[in-house]
Design brief:
single chain; 564 residues; mainly alpha; 3-stranded mixed β-sheet; 63% helix
Length: 564
Amino acid sequence: MTADEQQGTDQHGQIRPQTEIDRVAEGWVTTLGALVPTLATYIGLDNGKLGEWEDFSPAGHEQLADATRSVIGELSPLNPVDEVDRVTKEDLLATLRLDLERFDLRLHLRDVNVIASPPQGIREIFDIMPTESEGDWSNISSRLNGAPAAIDQYLETLRQGISQGVVPAGRQVREVVAQARTTADPDGLFAELVAKADGVSAGLASDLRRGARAAAEAYDTLADFLENELLPVAGDRDAVGRDIYEVASRSFLGATVDLDETYEWGIEELRRMVEEQTAIANEIKPGASVEEAIEFLNADPSRKLHGTDALQRWMQETSDRAVEELGRTHFDIPQEIRTLECMIAPSHTGIIYYTGPTDDFSRPGRMWWSVPEGVTEFDTWRELTTVYHEGVPGHHLQIAQAVYNRATLNSYRRLLAGTSGHAEGWALYAERLMEELGYLEDPADRLGMLDGQRMRAARVVLDIGVHLEKERPDGKGPWTGDYAFEFMAGNVNMNSEFVRFEVNRYLGWPGQAPSYKVGQRIWEQIRDEYKSREGAAFSPKDFHKKALDLGGVGLDTLKSALLG
């Protein structure tokens, strides 16, 4: 394949020739795909390693750090030939240097949390592995049978952390023990997965069943280690402290923010959300409080969906309508990205998430809803904005647009670049945009949107507060993990199990939760400054296209690319 073929052509047949900076960036995607085969699965890179695992041992982390240093050395002296190059170099160098900062902080030695650590990653990669062919099932079999070795390597890394006194908080360890015990069920997720392998050869079917048992047993081994070796020496404080938090915040935002100012802004933003919710509650039911308005809506049968089949159909219909209508009016949506599949996830964690399309669009973008066990009713007023957040104009438009732009963007920019602050900030920005465009005219739907926005504002206050152990908003001393549960329960209209999961997520994944609302804030600041500069010539459609055509980038890079 030539460089021009790799880059692709645009709708006018124009080709941007590959530059040296593109070559280095493309090479980094290839290197990462080889060192982290699960990443290759996520981006659809068929590199012959889709049945393999990355090396979770300390040596594997060292190898990845060495590769990172090497590409920094290769990229640093190169001179950009155009604006695309300048953005690529700026963003890739910032990302690589942050990766090394995280490595130097030895965060991999304490990598146990309830949502984004190897115990979840090893389990969840099977959700998106292809299952269409014998070869696909062979890859799944290879990974299942390789899971015990992957878990053993991970335990080796955690044992090194124990020896160096670098350990996670006990609260996270206890929660992951429970998750691992569930995954270890011999009749659970892995058994259910291989039971779907219809039509494969007898030998492969046997290998799959053996792999399912081996993977389940490996999770029992993991749970035993966490409970008996790590938990007794785990930390008793949930706070990670300012040094780790500053690096985590920059990693998730791709930008440096004043954490103390952001904390105070979060408190004010939360107050504003409460006032806005209160006003809308009165529209729904005159004189009602927010809680009373929610109770009123929850009792309305016309706003209920019963069962996951009904939920899936409603999500798909809502998404299809948004794609069709917005594609005619407010956004340029290429045909290739007009397909978004709304899926019910096989797991039951309660999270809702998006996975992007493969580079050739053979696997489309997908919105996944992981419905908790026993949940059978869903309120459309709460979730309408969720479909816009995950779909169009949210994550799908943003991420799939980058994948589509082969004529301009190298594979790093299309498939890997970006931060939570860029992606989740855009998705919250998109929610507000849909209100501006008239898609949330029903006060109930606006209340649902604000319910989510209020939660995201509360997370800014909670996350920074608890990890930096700042003074609580009520003035009653410093933040603690225990107070975080009380604070969150007072700011979301969700059941106690949801609050428990969410707060445990924030405590174990510092810096990620605020990136949504802080990212939205930065997106809006950039748009407002851009609009001020453009004056009467400002076009929201053109601004959004220019911003999204950059692909995923850190928010500092986004600002410099759009504002100079």
